[in-house]
TrEMBL record:
<keyword id="KW-0093">Biotin biosynthesis</keyword>
<dbReference type="InterPro" id="IPR015424">
    <property type="entry name" value="PyrdxlP-dep_Trfase"/>
</dbReference>
<dbReference type="Pfam" id="PF00202">
    <property type="entry name" value="Aminotran_3"/>
</dbReference>
<protein>
    <recommendedName>
        <fullName>Adenosylmethionine-8-amino-7-oxononanoate aminotransferase</fullName>
        <ecNumber>2.6.1.62</ecNumber>
    </recommendedName>
</protein>
<dbReference type="GO" id="GO:0051537">
    <property type="term" value="F:2 iron, 2 sulfur cluster binding"/>
</dbReference>
<feature type="binding site">
    <location>
        <position position="265"/>
    </location>
    <ligand>
        <name>substrate</name>
    </ligand>
</feature>
<feature type="binding site">
    <location>
        <position position="391"/>
    </location>
    <ligand>
        <name>substrate</name>
    </ligand>
</feature>
<feature type="binding site">
    <location>
        <begin position="110"/>
        <end position="111"/>
    </location>
    <ligand>
        <name>pyridoxal 5'-phosphate</name>
    </ligand>
</feature>
<feature type="site" description="Participates in the substrate recognition with KAPA and in a stacking interaction with the adenine ring of SAM">
    <location>
        <position position="15"/>
    </location>
</feature>
<keyword id="KW-0963">Cytoplasm</keyword>
<dbReference type="InterPro" id="IPR005815">
    <property type="entry name" value="BioA"/>
</dbReference>
<comment type="similarity">
    <text>Belongs to the class-III pyridoxal-phosphate-dependent aminotransferase family. BioA subfamily.</text>
</comment>
<feature type="binding site">
    <location>
        <position position="299"/>
    </location>
    <ligand>
        <name>substrate</name>
    </ligand>
</feature>
<feature type="binding site">
    <location>
        <position position="50"/>
    </location>
    <ligand>
        <name>substrate</name>
    </ligand>
</feature>
<dbReference type="InterPro" id="IPR015421">
    <property type="entry name" value="PyrdxlP-dep_Trfase_major"/>
</dbReference>
<feature type="modified residue" description="N6-(pyridoxal phosphate)lysine">
    <location>
        <position position="265"/>
    </location>
</feature>
<feature type="binding site">
    <location>
        <position position="236"/>
    </location>
    <ligand>
        <name>pyridoxal 5'-phosphate</name>
    </ligand>
</feature>
Amino acid sequence: MSLAARDQRVIWHPYTQMQTAPAPLPVVRGAGAWLYLEDGTAILDAISSWWTNLHGHAHPHIAARVHEQLQTLEHVIFAGFTHEPAVALAEGLLQILPANQGKVFYSDNGSTAVEVALKMALQYHHNLGQPRPKILAFRDSYHGDTFGAMSVSSRGAFTAPFTALLFDVTYIDVPVPGREADVLAQAEAALAAGDIAAFIYEPLLLGTAGMVTYEPAVLDQLMRLCRAHGTLCIADEVLTGFGRTGRLFASHYLQEQPDMVCLSKGLTGGTMALGVTTCSKGVYNAFLSADRSRTLFHGHSYTANPIACAAGLASLELLLADACQEGIQHIAQRHSQTAAAFEQLPGVRSCRTLGTMLAVELAVPGEGTSYFSGLRDQFYNLALRRGVLLRPLGNIVYALPPYCITDDELDRVYAVLHELRELVLETVPLA
C-alpha cells in the first residue's frame, strides 16, 4: 500500500476538508529548497513549508547539532532545572532582539508563544493592582489557532464555530498607505478608555491577511500612543522574525521597542517545534514577589526541549553568517525587480515585497478573492504540476522561499507566477 493510501486510513490533516481533499503528496526526503516524493517527483518549496524553513531542508549543520544533542540529553523538566542549549539560545536571541528585551520564556509553537504573551500582559496589570481586561489588535490579523490566539485574530469562517467562547477584543484597521490617519484616530479612541492591557500586532507584514504590508512610521506612532496610555506592545514576529523582512526582525525597522516579542516558525530553521516569548525587564519585574500568587502560571511538558534548542542555536549560527545575510538581500533584490516588472502587466492588480516575501495580487473579481475560491485551487494545482509549491491566499499568490534558493530556482518560481497570471487572463475577462 502506498504512503498516501496508508495516510488516508489514519490521518486527519490541518486546514483540510477530508471528504473532498485529494490524496496527500508523499514526501520521502528534502534537500535544499526541494522536496522529493515517493515516485521521485521533485517539488520546489517556494513557501518554506509554511514559512518555517530558513536554510533548506535537511541542512547538515543543523542535523549534526541535533544528532550531537541526542547523544547527551534529549529532555528534562524545565521547572527547577536548566541546560546549556536553553541558556545559550536565550543568550543568543537577546543579543539580536530589540535592546530592551531582557528575559526569554520557552513554549512549543507560535500559538502558544502568543498565549504566553497575552497572559503576561493581562497578569502584568493584575499584579500591579490595575487590571485591564481588553486587548487591541488589527482587524485582519492572524495570531494562531489556540483560543487566546484565535480571540486576537480576525473573526471569520475559521473562528465562527467558537465565537461565543472567544474573549472580547477591540479591533482597529490595518494602517495601509493612505489609511494611517484614520487608524491612528481609531487607536486613540480605543485607548482612551484605559482598559486595554496590550496591543498585539504583526509588525509591517500581515501574512494570512494576504501578505499585507504597512510602513514603520505609523507603527511607531501606534506604539507611542500605547505607551502614553500605559498599554503594553506585543510584536508577533512568528512570521517576520529571522530575516524574513530583510532585517533580523521587523522590529528593527522601528524606533519604538516592543514590551514582548513572540517567536517560532524560523526559530529552529524549520527543524522542529519551538516557541519563544521574550519580554522587557519591566514586564518581568512585575512578576517578582514574595507572594507566589504573582507567579506566571504557565508551562508545557516540552518547554525548552534541549534538542529543539540545539536546532535553534544551529539555525541562528547559519542565519548570522555573511553568506546567509547576503542571500537574504539578494532574494529581496530579485523580488523587487520582479515586482516592478509584474506591476506593468495585464492581469495583475498589485505587487508587494518586503525582504524575502513577494506577493502578486491577481485581478480576479468577486468570489475569486476568497480563500475558498475554486480559482485558488486551480492556482495551487497548476503550480504543483510545474513542480513548485505555492499556497495562494485567494487571488494573492506569494513566494517566501528558503534563503538557500538559487537564481535558477527563483526564475522557476517567477515563471509559474507568469503562468498563473496568464490563467487569469484566460479565465477572467478584463474590463
